[in-house]
Amino acid sequence: MRGVRIHGDIFGLPEEALRSLSRPPFDEVVFEDGVLRIDHEGYADVEGFLDELVRLLPAGGHGRLDLIDKPNWEMTRYQIEPGRWRAVRVPVESVMETVMGKAGV
Predict the structure, then answer these.
(1) d(CA 64, CA 80)
(2) In the β-sheet with 28-32, what is the strand arrangement from edge to edge?
(3) Residue 92 has pLDDT above 90, yes or no
(4) Which of 51, 56, 71, 95 is least surrounded, with the fewest CB atoms within 10 Å of its CB?
(5) CA distance 36 to 50
(6) Which helix (H) or strand (E) holds 70?
(7) Pick from 78, 83, 41: which is nearest to 60 by CA?
(8) What is the pLDDT of residues 62-81, one digit of tens each?
């Protein structure tokens, strides 16, 4: 899918759990200092990946993954915790208004 960007951070995933994950469907996956950082341009099976990830995430682990659909000007934020994830859809302009307001623009 053109115009889709996926990025986010997952905290608290042990390195041995990371090794047991299937190959993540993202362009760039970096694990450093206990943080799994994801960056991807284009479509990917986010929900299939999260289904597997949350089963491996220990107590105290958490994260978020944003899927930005540029053509439809919509963002889906996946909130991640041990054993479950949930998706919240928000218009991109509401996110931009918040960011711009905090930046004083």
Answers:
(1) 6
(2) 28-32, 35-41, 4-11, 62-69, 74-81, 84-91
(3) no
(4) 71
(5) 13
(6) none
(7) 83
(8) 999 999 988 888 899 999 99
CB 86 within 8 A of CB 46: no
Q: How far apart are CA 58 and CA 7, in angstroms?
A: 21
Amino acid at 53: L
Sequence-distant (6+) residues with CB within 8 A of 99 are none
Specify whether the CB–CB gap between 36 and 29 falls below 8 A.
yes
pTM over 0.85: no
Amino acid identity of residue 90, one-letter, is: V
Q: How many other C-beta atoms can be found within 10 angstroms of the C-beta atom of residue 5?
A: 14
Across 1-105, where does the E strand assignment appear?
Answer: 4-11, 28-32, 35-41, 62-69, 74-81, 84-91
